[in-house]
Design goal:
This protein has 453 residues and is of the alpha/beta class. The chain has helices at residues 6-32, 41-58, 68-80, 194-210, 233-238, 278-286, 331-339, 356-365, 402-409, 433-447; strands spanning 103-106, 109-117, 122-124, 134-136, 141-144, 155-158, 161-163, 166-168, 176-186, 218-222, 241-244, 253-261, 303-308, 327-328, 344-349, 368-372, 388-393, 413-418, 428-429. The strands form 5 sheets. Strands 1, 2, 5, 8, 9, 10, 11 and 12 form an 8-stranded mixed beta sheet that branches. A 5-stranded parallel beta sheet has the order 15-13-16-17-18, with helices on both faces. It has a two-stranded antiparallel sheet with strand order 3-4. Helix 2 packs antiparallel against helix 3 (68-80) and helix 7 (331-339) crosses helix 10. The protein is elongated, with a radius of gyration of 28 Å.
Length: 453
């Protein structure tokens, strides 16, 4: 058998070695530059805002029977937020090192660092409200953390659902399909109620500010799957984008450099009756309209009065009949009494029939808001400082202080009147013309002491 020359053997060996090194280098380079499906949240937000403008231009008074545009909007935005439907943007996930400080607990706020969310570990809680709520299993939240022995606070999904937070020093690069700077996890309980929605936004807004985070830089993760509501656009006013956990169920993992949990709702400033929170209110409402924090200059020759009507409508799947309490049975008498007042311009509104943007515009123009007690009174926060709020309460609501708390801390005079009569069979109340007239005269006298006799 002929011997192979040594120079040839050496050449072949060098060739194999060089080829192997080249292959390894290319593989490492490919791994470092491997792009992932990064969702462009701003694109979704821009589309949503332009769509809302189109809706406002075509018809600003959107009724519950016309909610299909909202459904279409959320369907499309949900698809935009689903990494499985997105094409690669060519953006590479940067290198990260495990953080040393895995979490921070300050007062009632817990924030995690380098957090990885696994949507596959969220599960629907069956048997209530069409599986709209989610629970979480261990592995839902993992921290990319160097301290393997750290005792990390458990993550609370709802009152009775918890999951242990896991720790790993391995970053799952190939599994991450969405990366954000700051994420806030929220489970909305009363999603169709204006008062509780405002409280959620208020609490998260101040939690972020207290953590040194600009609210409009934060993404919100809704750990629920409630149907669209006309109140939902309020979240867009304060935060960068909304992500639904339902849109991520079949996608990859989500990475947040900062993950913030909202504090316990029972500790909310809005639920502390004797706490003066005027500066916090001004910060919150001034964030979307700075003019609201300035003292109102009332034109006493044309005082704008907003009358809020409560009428039957389907506001929640749990109330399919749509029967609403605390209605006024003699609306025309109330309206007639208002029209007898001098220098008054009346604006009537059934809030559930209006887009949120229209509601905010009405309240910002109002000098006086008049109506039966209801969650809509929370929007008096968005009146310009120095207005008057007239709240008529049914016998079971006379001790309710929440709306007055908002009104007074927003810089308004609050006039509260408790009815003694019980409602009729339609859950409505009769409001005498004399009562309407006396309450309104008190409000106008406060605004224009020399012009109203």
């Amino acid at each position: 058998m002929a011997r192979v020359p040594k120079p040839l053997v050496l050449a072949v060996g060098v060739y194999i070695l060089v080829s192997s090194l080249f292959f390894v280098a290319v593989s490492l380079r490919f791994q470092q530059s491997a792009s992932v499906d990064v969702i462009r949240q701003n694109d979704a937000r821009i589309w949503t805002e332009s769509r809302l403008k189109e809706i406002d231009q075509s018809n600003s008074n959107i009724s519950r029977s016309q909610l299909s545009p909202y459904q279409q909007k959320f369907d499309l935005v949900s698809s935009m937020l689903n990494p499985t439907t997105m094409k690669s943007s060519g953006v590479s996930i940067p290198e990260y090192a495990p953080t040393l400080g895995c979490f921070e607990v300050e007062d009632t706020v817990t924030s995690y660092k380098n957090a990885i969310i696994d949507p596959s570990k969220a599960f629907r809680i069956t048997g209530k409200e069409r599986d709209e709520f989610f629970g979480i299993r261990p592995g839902f939240l993992t921290l990319f953390c160097a301290d393997q022995d750290a005792k990390i606070p458990e993550l609370n999904s709802r009152d009775n659902v918890r999951a242990k937070v896991e720790i790993s020093d391995k970053y799952p690069r190939s599994q991450v399909t969405l990366e954000v700077e700051t994420l806030v996890i929220v489970t909305r309980e009363e999603y169709a109620n204006v008062y509780w929605t405002i409280m959620d936004n208020f609490d998260i807004y101040h939690t972020l500010l207290g953590s040194g985070i600009e609210p409009r830089s934060a993404h919100i993760l809704w750990l629920d799957d409630h149907p669209p509501s006309s109140i939902d656009p309020l979240w867009d006013q304060y935060f960068k984008s909304i992500i639904r956990i339902a849109s991520l169920e079949k996608s990859g993992k989500l990475f947040a450099k900062n993950l913030v949990l909202r504090p316990n709702r029972n500790r909310s400033l809005m639920k502390q009756m004797n706490r003066k929170i005027g500066p916090q209110m001004d910060s919150f409402r001034g964030y979307i309209n700075s003019s609201l924090t300035k003292q109102k200059e009332v034109n006493c020759e044309q005082v704008h009065v907003l009358i809020i009507w409560r009428r039957d409508y389907v506001n929640h799947p749990g109330n399919p009949a749509g029967i609403i309490s605390r209605k006024i049975s003699n609306e025309q008498d109330v309206l007639a009494a208002m029209k007898e007042l001098p220098n008054v311009r009346l604006m009537e509104a059934q809030l559930d029939q209006l887009h949120l943007k229209t509601q905010l515009e009405l309240f910002s123009r109002a000098d006086v808001v008049f109506g039966m007690h209801g969650a809509g009174h929370a929007l008096t926060m968005f009146m310009q400082k120095g207005g008057v709020v007239v709240e008529i309460c049914s016998p079971d609501k006379t001790r309710n202080w929440h709306m007055e708390h908002i009104s007074r801390n927003s810089g308004h005079l609050h006039i509260k009147h408790g009815l003694k009569e019980q409602p009729d069979a339609n859950k409505s109340f009769f409001i005498p013309k004399d009562l309407t007239r006396s309450l309104m005269q008190k409000a106008l006298k406060h605004l224009c002491p020399t012009a109203i006799s």
